[in-house]
């Protein structure tokens, strides 16, 4: 997919996406990785935020025509969904990680009418677990999920298999391959990054 990497370049320069082949990082899933994305820092950076939303809007218009509303995943996907909803002039809601234990016991919030076509918005896709949880919750509560979109995807096999099983299309603004040209070979072992990705990716 031909998309500009200017927003990704800005994230790299700001440290919102880091690559460290010496120490590495441990994800919440327990997986060891040479990369770590902290896109929550986008919230407070107006310049980066505007650039990302502009590029992301074009992706959604191209890949997900006919969407009636956007649903952000709690918690990191909610601000992104809100900005995109404003740009796209669409209703917006959000998906809790689990149903409320009180009140109406809802998992999808926002008052969006049932039966509409919704797009799940994530900040990041690694294994696809949180996206799958949101898709299942939306389906259970009567929405038609037309797809999933994220700011960045690692392109891991686990996520590909998860989305295939759910029969849901996924398109991310940036992919792993968009990151490679931005890496400084004097600071990181690019070959090690590629080998790590090959071990877990859908293209191995």
What is the element layout, followed by pairings?
Blueprint: H1 6-14, E1 17-19, E2 25-26, E3 32-33, E4 35-37, H2 46-63, E5 69-73, H3 77-88, E6 92-95, E7 108-109, E8 117-125, H4 129-140, E9 144-153, H5 157-166, E10 170-175, H6 176-179, H7 190-200
Parallel strand pairs: 5-6, 5-8, 8-9, 9-10
Antiparallel strand pairs: 1-4, 2-3, 6-7
If strands are numbered along the chain, what order do they take across the biggest sheet?
7-6-5-8-9-10
| Helix/strand structural class | alpha/beta
Let me know the average pLDDT: 92
Biggest sheet features = 6 strands, mixed
Give the termini distance in whole angstroms. Answer: 19 Å
Proportion in helices:
25-40%
Number of helices: 7
Descriptive report:
This protein is of the alpha/beta class. The protein is 37% helix and 23% strand. A six-stranded mixed beta sheet has the order 7-6-5-8-9-10, with helices on both faces. A two-stranded antiparallel sheet has the order 1-4. Strands 2-3 form a two-stranded antiparallel ribbon. Helix 4 packs parallel to helix 5. The two termini are 19 Å apart. The mean pLDDT is 92.
Features:
two-stranded antiparallel sheet, 204 residues, 37% helix, 6-stranded mixed β-sheet, alpha/beta, 10 strands
Give a short summary of the structure.
With 204 residues, this protein is an alpha/beta fold.
């Amino acid at each position: 997919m031909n998309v500009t990497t200017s927003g990704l370049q800005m994230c790299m320069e700001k440290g919102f996406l880091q690559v460290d082949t010496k120490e590495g990082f441990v994800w919440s899933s327990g997986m060891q990785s040479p990369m770590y994305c902290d896109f929550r820092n986008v919230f407070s950076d107006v310049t980066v935020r505007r650039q990302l939303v502009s590029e992301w809007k074009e992706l959604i218009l191209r890949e997900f025509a006919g969407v009636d509303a956007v649903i952000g995943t709690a918690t990191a996907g909610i601000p992104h969904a809100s900005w995109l909803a404003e740009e796209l002039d669409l209703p917006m809601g959000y998906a809790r990680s689990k149903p409320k234990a009180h009140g109406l016991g809802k998992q999808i919030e926002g008052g969006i009418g049932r039966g509409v076509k919704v797009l799940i918005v994530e900040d990041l896709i690694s294994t696809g677990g949180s996206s799958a949880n949101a898709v299942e919750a939306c389906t259970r509560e009567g929405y038609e999920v037309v797809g999933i979109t994220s700011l960045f995807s690692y392109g891991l096999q686990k996520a590909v298999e998860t989305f295939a099983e759910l029969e849901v299309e996924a398109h991310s603004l940036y992919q792993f391959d968009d990151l490679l040209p931005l890496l400084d070979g004097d600071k990181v072992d690019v070959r090690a990054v590629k080998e790590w990705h090959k071990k877990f990716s859908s293209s191995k």
